[in-house]
Amino acid sequence: MTDSPSATAGPAPRSLPRGGRRPAWALLAAFVFADAYAMLRLLWATGSRWGYTACDRTVEHTAGQAVTGCGASGVEVLPFWSGWGAVALCAVLVAVTALGVARPGRVVAAGLWGCAAVLVALSFPGHLVFEFAAAAGHPTDWRDLANRVVLLAGGLLVAAAAVAAVPRAQGVRRPAGVRPAPRWLRAWAYAGCALPLLGWTMPHTLWLLGVPLGIPARMLAEVREDINVPMGLALCGLPALGGLLTLGLAARWGQEFPRWVPLVGRRRVPRLLALVPAGVVSVALTSYGVIGLSMIATALVDGQTTWAGLASAWAVTGTEVLFLAWGVALGVATLGYHRLARAR
């Protein structure tokens, strides 16, 4: 009498547990960053002014103001959100990253993602990329730029900790291959490509060529005087390149490297290679657009500008709307790519 298959096959295999181990370096590094930055903010709140700047990043400063941080050493009491308010927020960051080290999981990962988004948004209130481009030949508050670079690096580090905090299944291979992007994802990716090309690169190129599209002649002369050729190429070319790369979120080459790419041709594109830059840029653009529009609204309420003044420079005013729309389109396309790659 032959044995039944159940008798010879042995015990049924157990289901694979979730909670595969991930490298803990990101969680530990995020915790160290949170502690170090909280200590710096505590020093500022208690009287130290090392690395602190009192300059208003929304206005242009002289060389002497930029060097001294607008007299930062003479500031006796910091504003609440620059002093003890920032210390309280840092304490929240320290607590969340400590939970990530002690008890990683999906709930803690959600908190880490929130902290990462706040850090990245705070690093771009004056649009960090453009301020670096404008730093050539202009007085620059390097203390402010260094602080916001630290915030950006910390945001990326906390985002890596959020990824590391989520358990994953072990021994499970997801099917390879390229999944076609749904129509809505393609639409948002096309919008994320067209907005910077038509709303930023085209008008700035015309301005540099001397065409006063949407700005007064006086403002056009100031733009052409302040922007040299390398800066103009960067200001016009980088947003266009970013817009073209957005198409990859809905294209085959965003999931699989093209055959002609050396060494990695036909290999799968790592998700984070697309998600991290696109996510950072979308948060930065959205926050910059919101801040810019709020500044315009404040200027209207305070009487510093009028609707007629905004209309005379409609292209400049529309740039704030452009950043907000561009950030939203890129953010939605990034979420769609995340869902597409995860399903793959």
UniProtKB/TrEMBL annotation:
The protein's superkingdom reads Bacteria
Query: Could you list the residue ranges that cross the membrane?
Result: 24-44, 81-100, 107-125, 145-166, 187-209, 229-251, 272-301, 321-340
Q: Does the keyword Transmembrane helix apply?
A: yes
Instruction: Write the record's keywords in alphabetical order, separated by commas.
Output: Membrane, Transmembrane, Transmembrane helix
Query: What is the name listed in the Swiss-Prot or TrEMBL entry for this protein?
Result: Uncharacterized protein
